């Protein structure tokens, strides 16, 4: 199964203004935990940002779970179908 297609980006929103543009507070450290909102200049850590957006993220996770369950079911059906399709061609040597 191709896990790549379950990748999706969740837009993290600023809890203060709903802005979506963030930049690291220290420009020399792009991996900086502390992010700054471009709209309202609120400084927030990445963890905090994720926590503030957890409802939004959970929605995506549930969606992915549902999709995966459907895909697994379809895959099983396909495999079963091919097993039954091939059965009449089985010859005993
Ligand atoms: Zn903001």
Please, what is the average pLDDT?
A: 85
Question: What is the global morphology?
Answer: elongated
Which segments are poorly predicted (pLDDT under 50) over 5 or more consecutive residues?
A: none
Class by helix and strand content? Answer: alpha+beta
| Strand order of the biggest β-sheet | 1-2-3
How large is the share of residues in beta strands?
A: 5-15%
- Summed up, the domain count is 1
Question: What bound compounds does this protein have?
Answer: zinc ion
**CA gyration radius, whole angstroms:** 23 Å
Report the order of strands and helices.
EEEHH
Distance between the termini: 34 Å
Helix proportion range:
40-55%
Describe the biggest sheet?
3 strands, antiparallel
Question: Could you walk me through the main structural features you see in this protein, from its secondary elements to its overall organization?
Answer:
It is a single chain. The protein has 93 residues and is an alpha+beta fold. The chain has one domain. Helices cover 43% and strands 11% of the residues. The protein is built from two helices and three strands, in the order βββαα. Strands 1-2-3 form a three-stranded antiparallel β-sheet. The longest helix has 33 residues. The protein is elongated, with a radius of gyration of 23 Å. The site of zinc ion has 8 residues, from loops.
Give the structure's gist in a few sentences.
The chain is α+β, with helices and mostly antiparallel strands. It is built from two helices and three strands; from the N terminus they run E-E-E-H-H. The chain has a three-stranded antiparallel sheet with strand order 1-2-3.
